[in-house]
Amino acid sequence: MDHWSGPLAAVTRFFFIHFQTHPMNATFQRLALALSLVLAAPLSFAQGQSAETLIQKRIQERIPEVGRIDEVRKSPMPGLYEVLVDGTELFYSDAKGDYLIRGEIFDTRKRSNLTQQRANELLSIAWKDLPLKDAFAIKRGNGQRQLAVFADPNCGYCKKLEKELQTLNDVTIYLFLYPVLGPSSTQRSENIWCAKDKGKAWDEWMLQGVEAPKGQCDTSAIERNLAFGRKHKITGTPTLVLAKGTRIPGFVTLKQLEEAMK
Asked: Where in the chain does DSSP place strands (E)?
C-alpha cells in the first residue's frame, strides 16, 4: 500500500493542509508529527521486522529454489544487502527483498573485489582444523612456513603446480591426496600413500611420470580426505590452504604464491 493512501493518510493530509492555514498548538503539532513518521516509515519497520528479516522471508517465499539462506547482512555498498546461500554463495538484495542480484562488488577507490574478499573469508579453513595426520609432509629448507595442498595425481594443473612448488623454499608442504578424477586417481593415490617414501613417490609420478608400485596398507586416510573436502566444499584440484587459513583454488605461479604467503 502506498504511504499516502488509506484513512490514516487522509487524516495526515488534513493535518498538513490545516497547518498551512491555521496555527497549531504544541499538542496538535506533536500528533501531526507522529502520524507523519508512521506513514514515512518503511513497511518492515511498521511490521516490527528488520530489513534483514524481511529480505530473507520474501526471497525464501518468492524464490524457494534459490537455496537455504544462512545469513542476510548489510554489504559494503550503502543500500545493498548481502544474502549468503548454502554457506558459500553470495547474492545481493535491495532493502525490501524485491530484487536479487548475482554479481560482484568492486571498490574502485581501493581497486579491490569486495565480493571475492568475502568469498575467501567464507571459504577459509583454520589451520588447526586440517587433519595433518592424513597428509604427508614435504620439507624444504628450514621448513618454517606451512602450506597445505589438496591434489589429484591425474590432475594436469596439479602437475603444473608441482613444478612451481619445487623452488618454494623454507616451507613444509602437507600434501593431501584428493582423488576426484576417477578410479585411476584413487589407485594412484593409494599406491603413493603406501610407498615407503611418499614424498619421493609423489614427485616421481608428478614430475617424471614414474608410477609408484602397488602397495598394501591402510588407505582410509584418503577416504577421510574426501570427506573433509566435501564438508568444506573443496570441489577442484589443486586447492591450497595457507597457514593463515586463506584458501586458494586452482593453479598459481610461484610469484603469486610467495605474495599470498607474506
From this structure: 69-74, 81-85, 89-93, 100-101, 106-107, 112-113, 136-140, 145-151, 171-177, 239-242, 247-249
Q: Could you tell me what percent of the chain has a pLDDT over 70?
A: 82
Q: What are phi and psi of 104, to 5 degrees?
A: -125, 145
Largest CA distance in the chain: 99
pTM flag (> 0.85): no
16-72 pLDDT, tens digit per residue, is 444 444 554 544 454 444 444 444 444 444 456 899 999 999 999 999 999 999 999
The residue behind cell 519497520 is: 45
Q: Residues 116-152: pLDDT tens digits?
A: 889 888 889 999 999 999 999 999 999 999 999 999 9
Q: Could you identify the residue written with the cell 497547518?
A: 19
Are 173 and 137 in contact by the 8 Å Cβ rule? The answer is yes
In Å, what is the CA distance from 189 to each residue of 31, 46, 196, 208, 214? 76, 60, 14, 16, 10
DSSP secondary structure letter of residue 235: -
Distance of CA 110 to the CA centre of its chain: 21
Mean pLDDT score, 239-254: 94
Q: What is the DSSP string of 166-234?
A: TT--SEEEEEEE---S-HHHHHHHHHHHHSSSHHHHHHIIIII-PPPPP--S--HHHHHHHHHHHHTT-
Q: How far apart are alpha carbons 2 and 39 in whole angstroms?
A: 9
Closest CA to 252 of 162, 169, 121: 162
